[in-house]
Amino acid sequence: MNLTLKVWRQLNAKEAGKVETYNVKDISPDSSFLEMLDILNEQLINSDIEPVAFDHDCREGICGMCSLYINGEAHGPDRKVTTCQLHMRMFKDGDTITIEPFRSAGFPVVKDLVVDRSAFDRIQQAGGYVSVNTSGNTQDANAIPIPKADADKAFDAATCIGCGACVATCKNGSAMLFVSAKVSQFSLLPQGQVEKDRRVLNMVDQMDSEGFGNCTNTGACEVECPKGISLDNIARMNRDFLSASILSKDK
Amino acid sequence: MSVLNSNIPEGPIKDKWTNHKNNINVVNPANKRLIDVIVVGTGLAGGSAAASLAEMGYNVKAFCYQDSPRRAHSIAAQGGINAAKNYQNDGDSVYRLFYDTVKGGDYRAREANVYRLAEVSANIIDQCVAQGVPFARDYGGLLDNRSFGGVLVSRTFYAKGQTGQQLLLGAYSAMNRQINKGKIKMYNRHEMMDLVKVNGEARGIIARNLVTGEIERHSAHAVVLCTGGYGNVFFLSTNAMGSNVSAAWKAHKRGAFFANPCYTQIHPTCIPRSGEDQAKLTLMSESLRNDGRIWVPGKLEDAQAIREGKLKPTQIKEEDRDYYLERRYPAFGNLVPRDVASRAAKERCDAGFGVNQTGEAVYLDFASAIERYGKTEANIKGLDANDSKLVNELGTKVVEAKYGNLFQMYEKIADENPYKTPMKIYPAVHYTMGGIWVDYNLMTTVPGCYAAGEANFSEHGANRLGASALMQGLADGYFVLPYTIGNFLAKDIRTGEIPTDTEEFDQAEKEVKERLDFFINNKGSKSVDHFHKRLGKVMWNKVGMSRNEQGLKEAVDEIKQIREEFWKDVKVPGVSHGLNPELEKAGRVADFLELGELFAKDALHRNESCGGHFREESVEVGGEQDGEALRDDVNFRYVAAWEYKGEPSDAVLHKEQLEFNDIELKQRSYK
Fold first, then answer.
1. For residue A219, what pLDDT is reported?
2. Residue B208 annotated as catalytic
3. Which of B 551-580 lie inside 8 A of A, CB atoms?
4. What is the pLDDT of residue B50?
5. Which of B287, B388, B451, B505 shows a CA-CA span of 20 to 30 A to A146?
6. Do B424 and B571 share a domain, yes or no?
7. What is the SS3 assignment for B17?
8. Per the CB < 8 Å rule, is A142 touching B132?
9. Is the same domain home to A93 and A124?
10. How would you class B505 by CB atoms within 10 Å of its CB: exposed for 0-12, middle for 13-18, buried for 19 or more?
11. Residue B105 and residue B457: Cα distance in Å, rounded?
12. B37 bridge partner residues
């Protein structure tokens, strides 16, 4: 396949960026999107142009490091995949592909296609945990049976990889899907009950202070989420938040 | 007398860890506040160590090269974590887990360490459940288990095919709690560039801020390396793109012995490679071997027809299929350990039975599992168990619930539906059992420098059993290191903060900067990847699944030559002040080019077959075990720990003899 790539280039957070056009040839349809970018970079290095910086690591769709806004969609045109699992067979020979970083007020550009998602870490630090020491002297793992349906739902929420596609996709730049996934995981499990109110209040507070927008239930995040995190989680977080705001002793 | 002292406590094996904890030095809570610890790497070992040390009161500085600690490659572990809980009432026990692990490692691990690992395994599951890790459960609400290779019990806890992710997010959440309290200072997008020693002890690191390019000095009273394995020395592996040996290698150059570098796990079930531009290989969890049956066509002409696209696997009749693992190893069948399964796949493909275009693939087939589960479901629901369409639908649902994410991943990569046609798989580099030598306390030969998780050499001997890496990472970080590190730090309660404006830090920083400047100014003609790929080819062809003296000698020479060319001709674009992924890669590949040679040298000296290290000169001849690996316990029952002396060829071998008092040394048979 021969392709024309329109790639966002930006030296660092301070400089203005612009779109550059590159051509790549003989790309195998079985290549992944990032392997295609590897080929582009090898080509750029050989012509003394600085290669395009992009985040990536595991290349198995689980670490959440890769991002990219491809032809106007977070993680590109395929569904339920991250960019590293997107394959070139989704494109046609001769296509022009536009590649931009995940854009949001909460995700400043670091360089080219690399953005700073540390706001996500700070939201997790505000309460995304169960306060239990790692003594090993906790009770036996089977001491509290958990209904399978609850355990499965908690697991589904917990599979969020923190990539930020939800934020990049949302017209409001909202991080509600990400935050609600963690809130829901603990909210559905008995281990998470003790700190349930504090957790949702603190995490929402941190989310708001990071400059993320609010949710208006358009559901774009759920469509673009590579892990299929459900909008139900947002509803659950809103309910937890409302009840904690009114009734909590931890306010 | 060896210079190595493994510091194994006295007494019967079942009391060693308890006695040791009772006898080692402890730092009182008020004094812990006066002590700093650096943890490099935030995977299962590093994340759990950082969280635990901070909970205990130490001031922790944690470093990772990714943009968040949650992205360490432990996240990609799929299948599960072992623990001797015996919830399935199938006779599991601490002893049995200990025994399986020592045997699985082909009797090349330290008994005392492995016993301790088995002992604390049950605590890990308790701990993770308390943290809110959503393990798979049955309808009674209790934890579910599955089986893994090389064992005869079900002791593996799991969370679909994302167990590593869930455990790592558990450790990450424990870290977050301490970051929020200010007990952990987290440095994302930072890479350790060197280890700094003061008066012979590890007292800090030089790190590079990968965003600004700034070189930073960080001091501490101890340094813990949890920096993972070095499988990327093969270029293609299941490791993350950034996984590297550099932190461990820098420690090695500063005096930490590097043990058993040649022990590499080639995992049997990975998606076969597709082309020259491929950047990495993807694992399909070993848990799939619970339900998948591995086969190749029994007739050469069928294999040929499949390769040419004239025949489909589903068209081959049952009697014309060779389920070679079930044939060769009736007792363990598809659940033989990884090294055995990998070699068996290579043997069939080398004999001409491979099933993809390159002839390097075998089938992993779920048809019988789908039928079996479908029938059970039909019976439970009172439906017709002879309706094959219905049975197929019901069975597919069960398999999807168990392995859905893995099947989806396979379909996206291979563009085939594994519910309808068997998966194609082939072995790939996955894990390195070798690593930095550590004693019973997990301390390296540099006082104050510790290594945990895959970065150290310890518990898995020459071959790791499935679902044991997660167990070891968390055992080291949650339950071993937090105790043993106190034994060293107890003397530091009055030391005070370690200053960074000293000669030792000056010198280390200068060397780091010089090397970075060299890369930027070299203006060679070939990219870093060019050299990395060449190194990887030599490693795979001559130091891969099957090794011989001649190939290894050639590999040593060839790697040396690639290294020399690299330093003359490598091209690194851009600048050192600022984000520069090519510069990062250059430093890592430079270290791989040294490690690779030591790796081949170690494989050459070990003239026996054991675990993942298969020497063609050392095989069983005749009898039931004909063609299987032949271990040499008389001459090679030791850990090979290499001391750095400049060039890899000058490295000096130190031997730690392994004593087996609680397990009888036997031929490792899975027949």
1. 96
2. no
3. 571, 573-574, 578-580
4. 98
5. B287
6. no
7. helix
8. no
9. no
10. buried
11. 12
12. B60, B222
Q: Residues A89, A156: one domain? A: no
- Measured in whole angstroms, the distance separating CA A181 from the mean position of its chain's CA atoms is 11
Distance CA A239, CA A196 (A): 12
Establish if B525 belongs to a structural domain: yes
Partners of residue A192 in chain B, C-beta under 8 Å: 132
- Identity of the residue in A50, A65, A81 whose CB atom sits nearest the CB atom of B67: A65
A134/B138 Cβ within 8 A: no
- Claim to verify: residue A199 and residue A172 sit in the same structural domain: yes
* Shared domain check, A197 and A103: no
**Tokens encoding A144:** 């509290």
User: Could you say which of A85, A111, A137 is where a domain stops?
Assistant: A111
Helix (H) / strand (E) element for B391: namely helix B388-414
- Region of B631 on the Ramachandran plot (φ > 0 left; ψ -120 to 50 alpha; else beta): beta
Please give the tally of structural domains in chain B.
2
Task: Judge whether B549 lies within some domain.
Answer: yes
Partner-chain residue, chosen from A89, A111, A121, that has the shortest CB–CB distance to B579: A111
CA A7 – CA A119 distance, rounded (Å):
25
Taking CA–CA distances from A111, the nearest residue in chain B reads B579
Out of A111, A133, A155, pick the residue that ends a domain.
A111
Q: Which of B381, B405, B429 is the last residue of a domain?
A: B429
Q: Which CATH number goes with the domain that contains B275?
A: 3.90.700.10
pLDDT in tens, B313-337: 999 999 999 999 999 999 999 999 9
Contact A163, A181 (CB under 8 A): no
What DSSP string runs through B252-284?
HHTT--EE-TT-EEEEEEEPPP--TT-----B-
Beta strand pairing call for B59-63 and B184-187: parallel
Q: Angle formed by the axes of helices A176-187 and A148-158, to 10°?
A: 150
Q: B280 with B371, same domain?
A: yes
**Residue A251 confidence class, pLDDT cut points 50, 70, 90:** low
Q: The domain containing residue A238 runs over which residues?
A: 118-247
Question: Same structural domain for residues A98 and A128?
Answer: no
**B residues 228-287 near A, CB within 8 Å?**
238, 240-242, 274-275, 277-280, 282-283
Q: Does A47 touch chain B (CB under 8 A)?
A: no
pLDDT digits (tens, 9 = 90+) for A31-83: 999 999 999 999 999 999 999 999 999 999 999 999 999 999 999 999 999 99
**Residue B510 and residue B604 share a domain:** yes
CATH number at residue A28: 3.10.20.30
List A residues 90-119 in contact with B (Cβ-Cβ < 8 A): 110-111, 114, 116-118
Domain containing B392 equals: 267-429
List beta partners, residue A99: A7, A70
ipTM: 0.98
Do B292 and B414 lie in one domain? The reply is yes
Is residue B511 domain-shared with residue B425, that is, in the same domain?
no
Taking 50 as the pLDDT cut, the residues of chain B under it are: 1
Indicate if A225 and A240 belong to the same structural domain. yes
- Structurally, chain A folds into a number of domains equal to 2
Instruction: State whether residue A1 sits within 8 Å of chain B by CB.
Output: no
Q: What is the DSSP letter of B497?
A: P
Does residue B97 sit within a domain?
Answer: no
Contacts of A131 in chain B (CB under 8 A): 177
Tokens coding B117: 């690992």
Coil vs helix vs strand at B74: helix
Interface of A with B in 166-195 (CB under 8 A): 185-186, 189, 191-192
When CB atoms are compared, the residue of A63, A127, A147 closest to B75 is A63
Say if the Cβ atoms of A49 and B129 lie within 8 Å: no
Pick among B21, B48, B64, B71 to test the A interface (most A CBs inside 10 A): B71
**Does the beta carbon of B176 lie under 8 angstroms from any beta carbon of chain A?**
yes
Nearest chain B Cα distance for residue A152, angstroms? 7
Question: pLDDT, tens digit, for every residue of B357-404?
Answer: 999 999 999 999 999 999 999 999 999 999 999 999 999 999 998 888
